[in-house]
Design a protein that fits this description.
This protein is globular. It has 371 residues and is α+β, with helices and mostly antiparallel strands. It has a six-stranded mixed sheet with strand order 6-7-8-3-9-10, sandwiched between helices. Strands 13-12-11-14-20 form a five-stranded antiparallel sheet. Strand 9 and strand 10 form a beta hairpin. The protein folds into two domains: 224 residues, 3-Layer(aba) Sandwich (Rossmann fold), CATH 3.40.50; 113 residues, OB fold (Dihydrolipoamide Acetyltransferase, E2P), CATH 2.40.50.140. Helix 2 runs parallel beside helix 4. The protein has nine helices and 20 strands. The protein binds adenosine-5'-triphosphate. The site of adenosine-5'-triphosphate has 13 residues, from strand 2 and helix 1. One of its GO terms (molecular function) is ATP binding. InterPro entries: AAA+_ATPase, ABC_transporter-like_ATP-bd, ABC_transporter-like_CS, ABC_transpr_FbpC, ABC_transpr_MalK/UgpC-like, Mo/tungstate-bd_C_term_dom, NA-bd_OB-fold, P-loop_NTPase. Belongs to the ABC transporter superfamily.
């Protein structure tokens, strides 16, 4: 069984005003977040956003320039890594090269002198190996493992501990699609059962939405938004956030608002779209110049009676879905996700409609959500 004694004293992690510079690079700026026991926080952002830096500071492996880290109400900012009871699984694995897989996985328990738990009878060891599909590798040295196998050994080493906080830095990003799919669910299940407050970092927006109870979006060292997966997906606070989700990502089109109360529309060189009643209510300035709209590829529908037109640029088939790329008259590119095969040839005219309810509005200067 993977379930440790439930610790009623757990309060979880709280991070306040963390900042870190590396020379000219502001790796982290004023970052704040919290994770409760039993909660998985998905930390999502593109490469270089600051995910690893944040995890390393929490683990005590990198010193912050400013800010604090508390676990269970205790400020641990000054504690050395070994005394924090925080488990961090690195994207770079960090396995001991001279130890076998078994010894690597058990090394954190050994380091804390918990010898009685060593060996194959220790908590969850066999089940962990079997779930991660590494049982047959236990006597090997890391040099004899593939990248994906090393990643799973590093994951086992993090999961076997009984930490006050568990951090998985891109835990499944180097695995093939099938194993990634399986382990995403299995790891998520283990985290739920064990109730450790956990951080799961990933560059993949959809992975974040599926594993996180809460999602924190980080970009250029700043936390852009924290919320439930639904909040983040349905109300992205900025274009940077919106672009991380959706496959393919949301279409962003520049234009302006025009019209009077109750009749405001988005206008670009090639589109004129009436806003939904909800957006009509929410938008303050109905003649605002310089805005962006965001529209998800699933909210655009190819239709022979469609109001809008463009020319077919490319078609990609992904199993049951097709990604149809259309070029509008002003050169703007729009991606449409559809289940219907596209029989037209490249360059043909494509007619389509856009669901007014699927529109997002963003400020043209800062990219922040308008409504
Ligand atoms: P990835 O998904 O690629 O791992 P990340 O979100 O984890 O990216 P970080 O590794 O935290 O990003 O890096 C944040 C920024 O800080 C990057 O611009 C990176 O180049 C820089 N950086 C990180 N560590 C160092 C270091 N030790 N020295 C100099 N710059 C660093």
């Amino acid at each position: 069984q993977l379930v440790p004694d439930y610790q009623t004293s757990w309060q979880g992690l709280s991070v306040a005003a963390l900042s870190k510079r590396f020379g000219d690079v502001e790796a982290l700026r004023d970052a704040a977040l919290s994770v409760k026991p039993g909660e998985v926080l998905a930390l999502v952002g593109p490469s270089g956003a600051g995910k690893t830096t944040l995890c390393r500071i929490i683990a005590g492996l990198t010193d912050a320039d400013a800010g604090s880290v508390s676990i269970d109400g205790e400020d641990i900012s000054g504690l050395p890594p070994g005394l924090r009871r925080v488990a961090l699984m690195f994207e770079s694995y960090a396995l001991y090269p001279h130890l076998t897989v078994r010894e690597n996985i058990l090394s954190p328990l050994r380091a804390r002198g918990r010898n009685r738990e060593l060996g194959s009878s220790s908590i969850g060891f066999d089940e962990l190996l079997s779930v991660l599909e590494i049982s047959h590798l236990v006597e090997r040295l890391p040099v004899a493992l593939s990248g994906g196998q090393k990643q799973r050994v590093a994951l086992a080493r993090a999961l076997i501990q009984d930490p006050r906080l568990l951090m998985l830095d891109e835990p499944i990003s180097h695995l093939d699609a099938k194993l990634r799919h399986k382990l995403r669910g299995e790891i998520r299940r283990m985290l739920s059962v064990r109730q450790h407050p956990s951080i799961w970092s990933t560059p993949d927006g959809l992975e974040a939405l599926s594993v996180g109870d809460k999602v924190a979006v980080i970009h250029s060292g700043r936390i852009e938004q924290i919320g439930t997966p639904e909040e983040i997906f349905q109300h992205p606070a900025s274009i940077k956030v919106a672009r991380l989700f959706g496959d393919p990502p949301i279409n962003i089109i520049r234009g302006e608002l025009s019209g009077e109360a109750g009749k405001a529309a988005f206008v670009s060189a090639s589109l004129k779209l009436e806003l939904s009643p909800l957006l009509q209510e929410l938008v303050q300035d109905r003649t605002r110049k310089n805005i962006y709209i965001g529209v998800n590829p699933t909210d655009i529908h190819i239709n022979s009676n469609g109001k809008f037109s463009g020319s077919l640029y490319s078609v990609e088939a992904f199993g049951k879905n097709y990604i149809v790329t259309v070029q509008l008259s002003d050169g703007e590119i729009v991606k449409i996700k559809t289940k219907d095969p596209m029989e037209k040839s490249i360059g043909s005219e494509i007619l389509f409609n856009i669901s007014p309810a699927g529109l997002f509005l963003f400020d043209g200067e800062h990219g922040t959500a308008l409504a």
